[in-house]
């Protein structure tokens, strides 16, 4: 140790001449960094109240609370997260998981308040000085996600493999694919409200994840006795509201449902669903029509112990599901799989029996304790433009019926289909296949009033139709079918500008100067179907209430003015399969209630 | 590493050998052999550094797992020795004579899991807890959430809603099928 | 002259007290009134956290020392058992306040190793950067902090200022100053902000200047030398016997460093050396930490120069809200500023960890080693010896 060791420490005195480094608060503001994790802000107009932020918060700092002025609606629970700063640790996991990226942390970090209760507030609702701070923690970039954003793609037949046949296009998920897809669900339950049958979607998706097919299968049957069918052709409204769809692609809810149903063999149904040995309660119910509503009502009634008999006008069950939807979308054996299980519960179907013609409704009334009618929409509507009475102008629904029955139909070389809904796509694609078989080429045009973006058909239907070489040319109003020498030459159309007027009534506007001509020697109209309630005789009709739009009024249990008659399905709500199923289920509960309490 | 494992497999009949990494192997050893195995590894195989000693509660199997992780600083390899002891009579031979700090680990295991190590110095002196009257808190059957709810008071005014239930109450409150 | 020199060098005859029995064992009889019991702590002495040492003194000499912990126990290991793996990530950081990043890294690494998950290259570099920054900011407190224990607080203040500058950089990169919550299972939570490297270099230059200044203030200070050289000597044979790791082992001549011995992240792509000394006293340990500080600065510069500037920061993982980790167990380690810091993680195949156990260096350093080291120490050196081991109570009791 030298003298140096005594002297060198004194060099520290040079610091006396250095500038002071402390920041004088509050005279000098020191904003948090650009990524600082400070107080929360939530863009409540984007937030959908899915509760993922609440689920991930390890400190239970978040509650979901109703907020005045925010309505509960499809895809939005109306709830918003409220943060308790007595618990929050500013980890920002809630931000990273947020399904809408509405939630973020601002870079504000100082807040003085005398009332500890202030430190619990609903970000974005309770106004705070930092609400407009743009800086702060946001969901990180790039490719930073807490759950998969992309759908597991569904294996399908290539257009060349499918365009000459009616075999099913969609192959269905494998187990690995289904589990991967199911993994993306955040279990928020937002989709349940939108599903007409309010199926337990997150629950059966969890069952897939846990590879517990039987559990998932039971959950399906709680609300839906036609899972093979719905798993293929449901309109999947639920997917339009799926939380995950806000930033990524919505869950493939429909394909997951199909996955479960596909895994279960027919002979295991009864064991899994524990539906053996249901005691008969001695009461009898008649169901008119074996479409989705009728089958659903029959299923739930049978489970409650009723003897159910279905009257079906065609030679096979399923109604529109079999006679409207082409086989490449919904193979008949899958319909049979669902229906056979319902039959195994003791439900009887009397085929080729048209209620109204072969047996009257009053007769049913006298023979049974109650009647459920789910007769659907089977009358094709016509555009009534000049030329529609030509013999080569068809209704799509009639052609689809015939295809199902295996009957020969007229297939011309050039066809035009009028209509932009799913049924229009069904007939377009069916005819395209038949043209392909007959002529080796496709020449079919589908046209609709609605433009490309507002066509009611499912997007994938349009895409696939085009893949199969059909032309989809939307946005035209049909004016006239040109007929020369008794032969159809084509369809003249004018540009459609808008469909609905200011009041939202159907009142299309056209640009008469912008016309087009679609060459054809056969025209198919597919602009919707109407109901045929001729079978309800006058003496019964007088008890029914019919509203100004021509629809029969039923209560929430689908009971009509005639107490013994319950009506549901497309004639009440829809048209789609899942509404029919939900209607049938509720009507079953209604019938049970009616027969037990006589309301 | 493989030679060592082979050697101890025959000598100490260890089982469930899992090579987690090329330098980390887990083995399971019977309770009676464990301390001699550890002594062997320390003195013969130069696993001179004790990384840690801790327990895992397998309540469903009625077992406590003790894990001794040993490190050979020269060869830079680790062996983790797992030993199962009955949960209803959790006694294990003390290893404090091999490394003095083991006494600290054992004190903690006594306190947190209720595992006995006869002869271990200061075993019954409280280590972390003070005036603890409940079951040893790191056992699986001690419910921290329940304890804190009962011991402390909840903040008034907290309460949450489940989106699914809430939407049902708003949008389809009277659905008869639900 | 000789006489005056003798006055300065006067030492009491320590052979008489405390009394020993015929076997050479101490006779500690508190009722004899020859002993004093002093509690050192559990106040928070500044950089080390709350911990108490129960000292028995004979005059000014420690004859018995017992470490008491429990003042910071929050049961994190247990709390994590009922949290999803992703929820453990903000929880585990609290097991070491000074360097939370090691917890984040080890949790992430455990999960990734159990689930066979690779992380993107960029994320590896960013993780390494953050871990070195964590070491940097700790050492900025610890190195001058050693002098602080001897009441030379000036260096501590300089260090705290510079540490704040590092925390500013942390804030820019991670959004947090103390708990960074940046290393997440699967990757990290952000790329370097624009201009970060430049600002980092500015801070590094200031730290280099600081090292010169503390050399003058502390390491070339006769008082510091007098009070630390030869004090708190850890014999080489204690290293394995008491589980001594990190700088404390390196100061005793053991060239052990997890970054070199079990390279993780990108350490195998970095060029650095591990300093060792043999004196193994408080002074040597301080010097080792000073050297570590220099190494860290160098490592950060290398990382800044070599790291990719963009690319993915996180691998796709299963949905974190129900991420199940395959059944199994693993031990992963890293080199914290205090030495080997590891997580032993057991998964039972569910979405919650079965057990996560932290192996912190202080578990042995602050208990069995410190209790031994303090025997015969002067009461005035107790604090200095404790800090020279860089004790950190939260990692003892978690
Ligand atoms: S995760 Fe996002 S969208 Fe969902 S409730 Fe929270 S803030 Fe709203
Ligand atoms: S920042 Fe973290 S602790 Fe705070 S509310 Fe969000 S998830 Fe919970
Ligand atoms: S499917 Fe979508 S909306 Fe439904 S629970 Fe899962 S994430 Fe939520």
In short:
The complex is a heterotrimer of chains A (about 600), B (about 180) and C (about 400). Chain A is of the alpha/beta class and about 600 residues long. In chain A, about 30% of the residues lie in helices and about 15% in strands.
Kindly list the characteristics that best describe this protein.
heterotrimer; B: 178 residues; alpha+beta; Beta Polymerase, domain 2; 5-stranded mixed sheet; 5 helices; 24% strand; C: 398 residues; Cytochrome-c3 Hydrogenase, chain B; 2 domains; 3-stranded antiparallel sheet; 8 strands; 44% helix; binds iron/sulfur cluster
Explained architecture:
The complex is a heterotrimer of chains A (599), B (178) and C (398). Chain A is α/β, with parallel strands linked by helices. Chain A has 4 domains: 25-137, Alpha-Beta Plaits (2-Layer Sandwich), CATH 3.30.70.3270; 159-272, Fumarate Reductase Iron-sulfur Protein, Chain B, domain 2 (Orthogonal Bundle); 279-378 and 544-597, FAD/NAD(P)-binding domain, CATH 3.50.50; 379-529, FAD/NAD(P)-binding domain. Chain A is built from 21 helices and 21 strands. Chain A has a 5-stranded parallel beta sheet with strand order 9-8-7-10-21, with helices on both faces. Chain A has a 5-stranded parallel beta sheet with strand order 12-19-13-14-15. In chain A, strand 17 and strand 18 (506-519) form a beta hairpin. In chain A, helix 5 crosses helix 7 (201-209), helix 7 (201-209) runs antiparallel to helix 8 and helix 8 (213-223) crosses helix 11. The longest helix of chain A is centred in the C-terminal third of the chain and has 21 residues, at 577-597. The N and C termini of chain A lie far apart (107 Å). In chain B, strand 1 (15-21) and strand 2 form a beta hairpin. Chain B has helices at residues 2-12, 31-43, 102-113, 144-151, 163-171, and strands at residues 15-21, 24-28, 49-58, 63-72, 77-86. The model of chain B has no long low-confidence stretch (mean pLDDT 88). Chain B contains 5 helices and 5 strands. Chain B starts with a helix and ends in a 7-residue tail after the last helix. A 5-stranded mixed beta sheet of chain B has the order 1-2-5-4-3, covered by helices on one side. Chain C has 398 residues and is of the alpha+beta class. Chain C folds into 2 domains: 1-71 and 372-398, no CATH class; 78-360, Cytochrome-c3 Hydrogenase, chain B (Orthogonal Bundle). In chain C, the strands form 3 sheets. In chain C, strands 1-2-3 form a 3-stranded antiparallel beta sheet. In chain C, strand 6 and strand 7 (339-347) form a beta hairpin. In chain C, helix 5 packs antiparallel against helix 12 and helix 6 packs antiparallel against helix 7 (196-219). Chain C is globular. The model of chain C has no long low-confidence stretch (mean pLDDT 88). The interface between B and C is large, with 37 and 38 residues. Bound molecules: iron/sulfur cluster (3 copies). Residues 42, 47-53, 81, 98-100, 102-103 of chain A line the site of one iron/sulfur cluster.
């Amino acid at each position: 140790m030298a003298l140096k060791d005594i002297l060198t420490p004194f060099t520290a005195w040079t610091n006396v001449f250095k500038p002071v480094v402390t920041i004088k608060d509050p005279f000098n503001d020191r904003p948090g960094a650009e990524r600082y994790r400070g107080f929360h802000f939530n863009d409540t107009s984007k937030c959908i109240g899915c509760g993922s932020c609440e689920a991930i918060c390890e400190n239970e700092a978040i509650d979901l609370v109703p907020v005045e002025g925010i309505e509960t609606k499809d895809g939005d629970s109306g709830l918003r997260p409220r943060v308790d700063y007595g618990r929050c640790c500013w980890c920002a996991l809630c931000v990273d998981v947020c399904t809408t990226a509405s939630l973020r942390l601002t870079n504000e970090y100082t807040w003085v308040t005398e009332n500890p209760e202030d430190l619990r507030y609903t970000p974005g609702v309770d106004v705070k000085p930092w609400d407009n701070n743009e800086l702060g923690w946001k969901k990180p970039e790039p490719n930073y996600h807490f759950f998969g954003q992309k759908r597991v793609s569904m294996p399908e037949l290539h257009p060349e493999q499918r365009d000459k046949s009616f075999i099913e296009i969609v192959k269905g998920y494998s187990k690995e694919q289904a589990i991967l897809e199911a993994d993306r669900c955040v279990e928020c339950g937002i989709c349940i409200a939108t599903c007409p049958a309010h199926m337990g979607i997150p629950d059966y998706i969890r069952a897939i994840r846990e590879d517990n097919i039987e559990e998932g299968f039971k959950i399906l049957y709680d609300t839906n006795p036609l899972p093979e069918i719905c798993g293929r052709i449901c309109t999947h409204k639920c997917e339009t509201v799926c939380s995950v769809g806000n930033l990524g692609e919505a869950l493939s809810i429909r394909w997951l449902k199909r996955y479960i149903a596909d895994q279960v063999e027919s002979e295991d149904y009864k064991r899994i669903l524990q539906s053996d040995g249901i005691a008969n309660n001695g009461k009898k119910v008649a169901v008119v029509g074996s479409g989705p509503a009728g089958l659903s009502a029959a299923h739930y009634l049978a489970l409650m112990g009723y003897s159910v008999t279905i009257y079906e006008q065609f030679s096979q069950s399923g109604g529109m599901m079999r006679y409207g939807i082409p086989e490449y979308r919904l193979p008949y054996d899958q319909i049979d799989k669902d229906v056979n299980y319902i039959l195994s519960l003791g439900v009887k179907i009397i085929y080729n029996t048209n209620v109204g013609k072969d047996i009257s409704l009053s007769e049913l009334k006298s023979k049974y304790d109650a009647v459920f009618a789910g007769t659907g929409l089977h009358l094709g509507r016509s555009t009534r433009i000049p030329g529609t009475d030509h013999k080569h102008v068809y209704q799509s629904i009639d052609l689809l019926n015939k295809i199902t029955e295996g009957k020969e139909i007229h297939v011309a070389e050039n066809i035009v289909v009028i209509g932009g809904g799913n049924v229009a796509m069904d007939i377009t694609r069916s005819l395209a296949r038949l043209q392909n078989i007959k002529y080796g080429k496709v020449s079919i045009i589908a046209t609709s009033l609605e433009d490309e973006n507002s066509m009611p058909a499912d997007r994938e239907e349009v895409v696939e139709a085009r893949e199969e070489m059909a032309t989809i040319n939307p946005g035209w109003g049909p004016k006239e079918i040109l007929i020369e020498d008794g032969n159809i030459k084509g369809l003249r159309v004018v540009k459609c500008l808008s469909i609905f007027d200011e009041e939202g009534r159907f009142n299309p506007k056209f640009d008469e100067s912008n016309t087009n001509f679609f060459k054809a020697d056969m025209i198919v109209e597919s602009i919707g179907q109407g109901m045929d309630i001729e079978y309800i005789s006058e003496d019964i009709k007088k008890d029914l209430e019919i509203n100004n739009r021509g629809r029969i009024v039923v209560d929430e249990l689908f009971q009509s003015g005639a107490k013994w008659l319950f009506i549901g399905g497309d004639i009440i709500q829809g048209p789609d399969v899942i509404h029919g199923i939900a209607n049938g289920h509720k009507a079953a509960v209604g019938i049970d209630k009616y027969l037990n309490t006589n309301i | 590493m493989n030679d060592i494992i082979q050697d101890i497999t025959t000598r100490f009949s260890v089982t469930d050998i899992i090579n987690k990494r090329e330098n980390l192997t887990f083995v399971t050893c019977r309770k009676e052999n464990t301390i001699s195995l550890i002594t062997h590894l320390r003195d013969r195989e130069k696993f001179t550094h004790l990384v840690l000693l801790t327990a895992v509660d397998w309540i469903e199997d009625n077992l406590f797992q003790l894990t001794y992780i040993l490190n050979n600083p020269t060869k830079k390899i680790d062996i983790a020795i797992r030993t199962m002891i009955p949960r209803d009579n959790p006694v294990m031979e003390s290893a404090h004579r091999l490394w003095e700090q083991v006494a600290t680990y054992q004190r903690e295991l006594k306190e947190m899991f209720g595992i006995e190590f006869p002869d271990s110095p200061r075993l019954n002196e409280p280590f972390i807890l003070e005036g603890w009257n409940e079951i040893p808190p790191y056992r699986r059957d001690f419910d921290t959430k329940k304890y804190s709810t009962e011991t402390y008071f909840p903040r008034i005014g907290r309460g949450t809603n489940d989106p699914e239930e809430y939407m049902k109450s708003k949008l389809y409150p009277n659905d008869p099928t639900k | 002259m000789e006489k005056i020199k003798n006055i300065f060098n006067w030492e009491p005859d320590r052979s008489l007290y405390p009394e020993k029995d015929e076997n050479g064992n101490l006779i500690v009889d508190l009722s004899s009134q020859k002993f004093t019991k002093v509690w050192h702590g559990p106040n928070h002495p500044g950089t080390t956290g709350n911990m108490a040492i129960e000292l028995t003194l004979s005059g000014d000499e420690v004859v018995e020392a017992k470490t008491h912990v429990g003042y910071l126990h929050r049961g994190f290991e247990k709390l994590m058992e009922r949290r999803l793996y992703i929820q453990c990530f903000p929880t585990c950081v609290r097991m070491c306040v000074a360097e939370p990043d090691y917890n984040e890294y080890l949790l992430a690494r455990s999960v990734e190793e159990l689930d066979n998950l690779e992380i993107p290259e960029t994320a590896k570099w960013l993780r390494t950067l953050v871990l070195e920054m964590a070491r940097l900011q700790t050492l900025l407190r610890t190195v001058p902090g050693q002098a602080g224990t001897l009441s030379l607080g000036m260096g501590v203040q300089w260090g705290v200022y510079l540490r704040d500058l590092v925390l500013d950089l942390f804030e820019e990169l991670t959004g947090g100053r103390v708990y960074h919550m940046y290393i997440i299972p699967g990757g990290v939570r952000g790329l370097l902000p624009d201009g970060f490297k430049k600002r980092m270099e500015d801070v590094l230059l200031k730290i280099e200047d600081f090292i010169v200044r503390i050399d003058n203030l502390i390491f070339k200070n006769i008082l510091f030398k007098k009070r630390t050289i030869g004090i708190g000597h850890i014999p080489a044979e204690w290293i394995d016997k008491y589980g001594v790791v990190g700088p404390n082992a390196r100061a005793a001549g053991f060239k052990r460093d997890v970054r070199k011995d079990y390279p993780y992240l990108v350490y195998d792509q970095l060029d650095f050396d591990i300093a060792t000394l043999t004196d193994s006293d408080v002074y040597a340990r301080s010097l080792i930490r000073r050297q570590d500080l220099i190494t860290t600065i160098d490592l950060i510069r290398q990382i800044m120069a070599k790291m990719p500037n963009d690319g993915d920061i996180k691998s796709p993982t299963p949905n974190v809200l129900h991420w199940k980790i395959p059944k199994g167990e693993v031990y992963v380690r890293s080199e914290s500023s205090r030495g080997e810091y590891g997580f032993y993680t057991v998964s039972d195949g569910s979405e919650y960890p079965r057990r996560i156990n932290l192996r912190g260096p202080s578990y042995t350093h602050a208990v069995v080693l410190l209790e031994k080291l303090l025997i015969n120490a002067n009461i005035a050196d107790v604090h200095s010896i404790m800090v020279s081991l860089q004790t950190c109570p939260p990692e003892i009791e978690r």
